[in-house]
Design brief:
The complex is a heterodimer.
Chain A: E1 3-6, H1 8-19, E2 24-32, E3 35-42, E4 48-49, E5 54-55, H2 60-63, E6 72-77, H3 79-90, E7 99-104, E8 110-111, H4 123-131, H5 138-141, E9 153-157, E10 163-167, H6 170-176, E11 183-185, H7 205-211, H8 220-223, H9 244-254, H10 263-273, H11 283-287, H12 294-307
Parallel strand pairs in A: 2-6, 5-8, 6-7, 7-9
Antiparallel strand pairs in A: 1-10, 1-11, 2-3, 2-4, 9-10
Chain B: E1 12-17, H1 21-30, E2 39-44, H2 52-60, E3 65-70, H3 81-98, E4 105-109, H4 115-133
Parallel strand pairs in B: 1-2, 1-3, 3-4
Helix pairs in contact in B: 1-4
Classes of the chains: A alpha/beta, B alpha/beta.
The structure holds iron/sulfur cluster (SF4) (3 copies).
Chain lengths: 336, 134
Amino acid sequence: MKGKRVDKRLIEGALRKFLEDEQHLVLGFEKAENRVKHRLFKKNLQDYSLFNPYFSVNGAIYLRRLFSKGTKIILMLRPCEIRAYGELTKLSQIERESIIGVSVDCFGAVSLKNDVQDIPTEVDALKDYFDGTDSMRWPCTVCRERKGVVGDAGIRVDTKGSLLVFPYTERGEEFLSLFDDGYEANGAEMLIKTKDKVESFQSDMETFSKDISKCIMCMNCRDMCPVCYCIDCVFNGDDYLPKGDALLNKVFRSGSAMLPQGRELFHFIRMYHVSQTCVGCGACEEACPQGVPLTKYFKGISERLQGMFSYMAGRNFDESIPYLTFIEEELKDAED
Amino acid sequence: MTEEKKDKNPEIVGFACSFCSFKASEMAGSLRMKYPEGVKLIQVPCSSRVDPAFVIKAIFEGADGVFVAGCHPGDCHFIKGNYYTRRKIAALKEMFNAFSIKNKIRLFWVSASEARRFVEKVSNMYNEIKEAKT
Ligand code: SF4
Ligand code: SF4
Ligand code: SF4
């Protein structure tokens, strides 16, 4: 694949060139006091950081709040964020037209729940940091999609620690054309590798109930999930977890009623609803005040259910979400 | 599921497409064929109207099993609704399988004229679940 060997200075130069236009924005990372955060840059790129070793939210969640009327945006995000953005475009939640999505190789990240500060943000130090520590958050340790190979373009790191830019689509070519300098690069060996495939997820109701017994139904996990996009969530009304009249009606109709606690119900339904679009980012787990091990279930189930259709959320922007399409001759086993 | 059931007679909720499977159940009635009382039918305009959330809710509110019944592939009144149903329910089954509760869910294709097939399908499901309960 044809790409360019660049460096940090050249990447920032390219983004600055893009930002010369008043209507252009970059969504990426900013170095703030002892950590790194998401930031939307306009005109200047102050304190820009290419890598972000801290995970607070999945950046794709911001896109649902951005209506890019006449504005062009470059996303410089982690692979799990670009993949979530891809799924949202397939669901017509985001207009892809004015967005260039660039996935940046990811070394993993730490949870903000741990008190970790001053993690390096430059390639060499960063890779050594994660090699020599066990403070990486669990969802990142099991992430097999850390490579910057999704979206319109990717920024990748080779084994020598140099940066490379690769275009994947026409818009990616447009991104590449922002770089005046840099050498042409083919076939370098990359630092971030795909991990082996793991066994398919298996559990049972007892373990599951035990794991989620601390859930207080605050629904932060839902609200912070980048691909849980419904405005009218079934759990916002009184149908699924009844209260008031709906609950009394139920009691009078059936003689008695379970008081709505519904943790299992909530997580089961949410798990199914995101089963084809979940990117395994672990933003749900990060958002949970109770420390419920959500990624284990959400990632496990979604990998299993996506696997049925040889699908992987966000891998390919032109691939349809399995529930939105079908093949006539398939899944005979599912018929009873 | 959270409520302990004392009796051994299963309760089964079935979502039946109004153009075929539900018609078949009506015909079974008019032909005086019998199927277990514990089977409660919910009429839906097309099997693809069944959001798996309905199935999950029925199970968590105490149903011992749930089935979704639609027209045979190719015969959908809305042309391709049941193909989407098959994908959705197949995936739901896979999820139930991952939690070791696969037995609780079925997918049937029953056309309007197949009253006997309808009775057989639901009775078999009922009996299997009843056996598993005892
Ligand atoms: S989930 Fe994967 S891509 Fe996302 S931050 Fe963690 S390692 Fe990086
Ligand atoms: S369910 Fe959790 S892991 Fe999956 S996309 Fe949503 S936040 Fe990320
Ligand atoms: S964020 Fe945690 S406590 Fe809140 S609903 Fe989700 S799992 Fe439950």
